[in-house]
Amino acid sequence: MMEFKFDVHTHTIASGHAYGTVHEMAQAAVDHGLEMLGITEHAKGIPGTCDEIYFMNMRVIPRKIHGIKMLFGAEINILDENGTLSMNSELIERCLDIRIAGIHDLCYTVGTTAQNTNAYVRAIENPQIDIISHPDDSRIPIDIETIVDAAKENHTLLEVNNSSLNPLSSRVNAWENLRVMLALCKERNVPVIANTDSHFTDAVGIFQHVKDLFKETNFPEELVVNRSIDLLREQVKKHRIIRKIGKESWFELEED
Fold this sequence. Notes:
Radius of gyration: 17 Å
Largest sheet: 8 strands, mixed
CATH superfamily: Metal-dependent hydrolases
CATH topology: TIM Barrel
CATH architecture: Alpha-Beta Barrel
Number of strands: 8
Number of domains: 1
Shape: globular
Structural class: alpha/beta
Order of helices and strands: EHEHEEHEHEHEHHEHH
Strand content: 5-15%
């Protein structure tokens, strides 16, 4: 069974509805054998989340805590069918190590399948967005084939979200939708990323539902970027327009 080396979609108390601190989440990642943890607080639009000054000041946080590599970024809201984001491009470029975008019905008016699909595709095409979070909820109907093809063309990572697969999740038909997505990714040789979307320490680095789904669908390990930090780095570099933003950028970190 493949080892998952990192988990880059997690939330702390700063997101307003999560329950661990940065140090607690980092320690949980160490305890669960991860080599890297990404903390990606919700951007504005989600009730109770942090203000933009939080992201502006993340440079003060060490990029290694309890011996584990740390990335700090955001889960940015897709606001409309044009892929408008809830964070401005300057802030994204200057402050975020890792950039995730997703649809949350708290700040998105669900449209037709075509409109919802277009919202995702525009975010996929955005060079500042590395990962699309949980494109798996039937309450927001999409053309999965179109999204997979866009991800392939733009080298944007589609997420297999362990939280979506949890029976307690509010998302609808995630197992069925992700089966379809993984079959298309396998057929088209499109890599994916697994994340836990943890909102508490107990979930950090726990990928059991994802592992079960990968096993069920016989999804090839070579298409899962979690097996290597370098694979994630390479995939993001393929997609992103790289600009030097200082030593805080994880692209500038020395390999060790």
